[in-house]
């Protein structure tokens, strides 16, 4: 496969033999394993039995991406596109069939213009990380920011094309609500911008997942402005300290309060939990001063008991460092946002749910009791509401606006082997099962960026549309139909595919 691919690649593009060995990596190349492992962010997919690609392509210029698409198509090879490698189920770098990886880690240019269009904008290549984007914005201005994920190593390619949210979702909506242009390599190896790709494809890659439609090279995003001083706070409560009351009331306050306030709650039993209790950890960002948020919360949410001493005022960029668990942010340099942390992955699995109606206190209490018996499984509650609801549901492929909050089911562990995996994923599936009565139904919805192959997979055989509809409706609701129409128009032979990509309409196959 490698020889055939190289022959094709050299025909398609002008490249010296020296550069070729850096761009097209065979399994025998010394760079193959380091490059493969550098962006595996889930240790479950970094084992000797994990299927490996036949070739890794590490493009340096657009023509390499174009040639990679053309040659993979000619040789009928499955192409996995990887930017930051944070796909929770490893779909950007694992496959059951023969495949190659297009690794965009050298595609990381960022150009920030804080004066463009009045509010500022940035062109960011998809192999850049969110941390790099935030850092480059901060180089230009302390009051400009971008509303995306809070983990700095997440890649722009998957995150933005899959929706994207962070701790300003209630003020500024989703990441994709701020995308104003993009460049993409289509199935014919042609490069398009927003104008030449057309509004349908531009709509699809703002939340429908780039991997179904082409290789996104870069996004142009609108920046937002934030106050010079913002406030963060944390409030931790155990079962003895009213955790139940706080979480019950949180459901009423967090999705309805000032859009500048984002309060996330993490529910989990402590790792060495002999007493079998649940802790509730609340982490918050307020786009304003401490006095304001304390007085608001004293009135709206006395059960939290927020005091001025719980609050820290800082710049927006420092709030990201604080969110990364750096307590004393004055001692941490923002350059930490540029770190890519190779090989730091733990074993993990994530699932997601949406809550539309507050859970009653007795039901929440039963949930706490059950959660306390399950090691290493937790629930992360992310409030919605605020300005997320200002955008119409059909405006982007993301259909889950107007929900109260999203749950991330989460399990993370460090001991290798099938026993640990069976136990912890089993525990998490138990919490998922017991949440059934309290979450969205028909279909039970999921957030596309929290990839979860439990909700359906596709081998893209004869039943591709039917299989795609199973996970597709959970991720995209009614927007699934438009995604299928766009897919059928731009990639009728389904070259850009993975285990959860958008299928084409059945009659075209
Ligand atoms: P990766 O490279 O694995 O790609 C993910 C998917 O996108 C794959 O299907 C891939 O083929 C496709 N893709 C990637 N680049 C592409 C390109 N250039 N063109 C076309 N398709 C492309 N989410 C969130 O919304 N808010 C958050 O705060 C967080 N936090 C977070 C923390 C951690 C530690 C993890 C592991 C994950 C998150 N996420 C998240 C989820 C994250 O947004 C999601 O996994 C993204 O898809 C990751 O994008 P990457 O480019 O890193 O992934």
How do the strands and helices of this protein lay out in sequence?
Layout: H1 2-12, H2 17-23, E1 24-26, H3 32-38, E2 55-57, H4 62-74, E3 78-82, E4 99-103, E5 110-113, E6 121-125, H5 130-140, E7 144-145, H6 156-161, H7 169-172, E8 179-185, E9 191-192, H8 194-197, H9 199-204, E10 215-222, E11 224-225, E12 230-237, H10 243-253, E13 261-268, E14 279-286, H11 290-300, E15 311-314, H12 316-323, E16 347-355, H13 361-371, E17 378-383, E18 405-413, H14 418-434, H15 464-476, H16 479-490
Parallel strand pairs: 2-4, 3-4
Antiparallel strand pairs: 1-2, 5-6, 6-10, 7-11, 8-9, 8-10, 12-14, 12-15, 13-14, 13-17, 16-18, 17-18
Helix pairs in contact: 1-4
Task: Please give a structural write-up.
Helix content is about 30%, strand content about 20%. The chain has helices at about 1-10, 15-25, 30-40, 60-75, 130-140, 155-160, 170, 195, 200-205, 245-255, 290-300, 315-325, 360-370, 420-435, 465-475, 480-490, and strands spanning about 25, 55, 80, 100-105, 110-115, 120-125, 145, 180-185, 190, 215-220, 225, 230-235, 260-270, 280-285, 310-315, 345-355, 380-385, 405-415. It binds dihydroflavine-adenine dinucleotide. Dihydroflavine-adenine dinucleotide (FDA) binds near residues 126, 211 and 449.
